[in-house]
Amino acid sequence: MKPKVATIFGASGFIGRHLIRRLTEKDFRIVAATRSPYLHGYLKPLGNPGQIDLEKVNIFDEENLKTLIKNSDIVINLIGILYETKKQKFENIHADFPDLLSRICSELNIERLIHISALGINENVSSKYMQSKLMGEKKILHNFNNSIILRPSIVYGDGDNFFNQFASLAEFLPALPLIGGGQTKFQPIYVSDLCKAIVAILNKEEVDENIYELGGSQAYTFKEMMEILLKQIKKKRFLIPIPFSIARFQAKILQLFPKPLLTTDQVEMLKYDNVVSNNYPTLKDLKINPKTIESVLPSYIWRFRKGGQFG
Ligand SMILES: NC(=O)c1ccc[n+]([C@@H]2O[C@H](COP(=O)([O-])OP(=O)(O)OC[C@H]3O[C@@H](n4cnc5c(N)ncnc54)[C@H](OP(=O)(O)O)[C@@H]3O)[C@@H](O)[C@H]2O)c1
């Protein structure tokens, strides 16, 4: 049988790198769309020679998108940003691009569009990030029936931007902040489980569900996650509760940096629990038994221990 072609936008990111590996194992041919193919040559060895093409993309150029997609069976959108810059605005990246992409997928009769959104989005969450993700979902669902939207909680695994970032902070800070007291709940999902979910959805004969909420084996408060992390990296650090009002003030200053550690929009998001609502299908419906943080974290976070793997 002819291998299927999957075009992945945002292929060079954390989830993209893991997903490419999973899809090449399943014999997909990959078109990895990135703004800078010359910087991401490391993606090529994730498949057999010739199995992965790196292509340059301008996500607002309709003709460029059509050329990239026209020979694809599957399109996957992993493009997302955590903070705005002069050039990158939430609305353009999370709503306008998915709008254009889903219209093109419909026009070109693509078999399936998989779009990664975010868990916990609803009309009442005032964060700009969340509102832009919600807008993107609505556009996609309006434009293209064969779309599947995945809403993951925090995604973790080798190369993640969550545990790695806090472990890096613990390298030089005597204390880690617990915004809002660290009581916000999350249901982190292992990146491998997320990739398995994507494969399971691609294996379905038909698109029977348009939205999935993807959380891991259990919910943890932010404070509990920091305690698990510190135990794994064998470091003792104070965990200091910071009220939302003070965190917001700190974020106003931090967000002036080019790569901000915290923004006021993120402080806003931290006010809401990030766990599956059970109003939509989950990993269980895809017959995936998610891993626990405790079983996965030691496999990659050891580099922050004093003695590394032997520490
Ligand atoms: N990681 C999580 O915990 C998590 C949780 C919930 C939802 N999500 C969502 O999952 C998706 C993937 O997350 P991730 O952690 O893999 O993100 P990531 O590591 O930050 O990667 C994001 C990707 O977006 C691409 N990108 C950004 N702006 C672009 C632009 N203007 N044009 C083209 N490409 C652009 C980048 O590609 P190039 O620089 O190569 O062009 C990069 O590969 C995002 O939508 C994110 O919101 C992630």
Characterize the main sheet: 7 strands, parallel
Number of helices: 11
Cα gyration radius (Å)? 19 Å
| Number of DSSP strand runs | 13
State the secondary-structure class: alpha/beta
What percent strand? 15-25%
Question: Could you tell me which ligands this complex binds, including any ions or cofactors?
Answer: NADP nicotinamide-adenine-dinucleotide phosphate
What's the N-to-C terminus distance? 48 Å
The CATH topology of the domain at 5-160 and 189-215 and 275-288 is given as Rossmann fold
What is the 3D shape?
Answer: globular
In the CATH hierarchy, the architecture of the domain at 5-160 and 189-215 and 275-288 is: 3-Layer(aba) Sandwich
Name of the CATH class of the domain at 5-160 and 189-215 and 275-288: Alpha Beta
Give the integer mean of the pLDDT values.
96
Give the helices and strands as they follow along the chain: EHEEHEHEHEEHEEEHEEHEHHHH
Residue stretches low in confidence (pLDDT < 50, at least 5 long) are none
CATH superfamily of the domain at 5-160 and 189-215 and 275-288: NAD(P)-binding Rossmann-like Domain
Give the helix level as a range of percent.
25-40%
Strand order of the largest sheet: 3-2-1-4-5-6-11
Concise account of the structure shown:
With 311 residues, the chain is α/β, with parallel strands linked by helices. It contains eleven helices and 13 strands. It has a domain at 5-160 and 189-215 and 275-288: 3-Layer(aba) Sandwich (Rossmann fold).
